[in-house]
Give the backbone structure.
Amino acid sequence: MTRDGRAELTGKVAFVTGATGGIGRATALAFGRAGASVAVADLAEEGSRETARLIEAEGGTALALCCDVTRSDDVKAALDRTVDRFGGLDLAFNNAGIEQPVTAMVDLDEAEWDRIAAVNLRSVFLCMKHQIPLMLERGGGAIVNTSSGAGVKGIAGQAAYCAAKFGVIGLTKAAALDYAARNIRVNAICPGIIDTPMMQRFTEGTPEGVARVVAQEPVGRMGRPEEIAAAVLYLCSEPAAFVIGHAMVVDGGQTI
Ligand code: NAD
């Protein structure tokens, strides 16, 4: 940690998915400020480039990558390009995700179930499957996977999203046990209601929509993406060396 309490990641290489806005962009920027070289991987190519530009504008080092995290070949190609450019991989934030429109379980169609499961859960498996061998080559690493408050608590109308996000925690804990002895730490982050493009779609940007979600937050406000980024950086840093397989809830009290 630096004297002002920030993580010190100089010389590390970080890979971030879902980084065109919201939590992913804030975390990619935080990795850059902490001194890591940052690979920014997202389906939205222009958004990835913009995040990389923002990191470089602050004096950091970044690589923009176009990658569909539901496709194994895409993920592998993005990681290969990261290693070609930066020489290896130390840190990963597997964060890409999509929301579920509020739907009672029986009314959820099968294609929607598959899409939500693929982006929110299969992607985390694929990312770790290709990241861990690269980290083993470096002698270790740290991975943080994005779950949710919906990964620790059932939410009406969110069956597929909850199933995927609970799944991320199970996958995180099992992978953490598989690799703890080989110096790879795998943890999950469970954000509460965070003010991001996803949440703006969910509330439809209306005062009523915002009031409805803020009412779920004992702290009386939405979280900021930077508040999640700070927790992710901690989980990736040396002071968290003994934190393994943890699902860290950062949610303003939403799921207490
Ligand atoms: P966001 O919509 O702003 O960002 C999601 C990112 O994922 C976007 O950059 C999008 O382009 C990318 N993405 C979507 N599908 C992809 C794919 N197939 N391949 C590659 N990239 C893809 O959302 P956010 O709120 O910043 O969410 C980030 C993560 O946090 C998600 O996993 C979300 O489920 C989770 N989360 C968000 C909240 C919240 O309140 N915002 C709460 C809990 C968990």
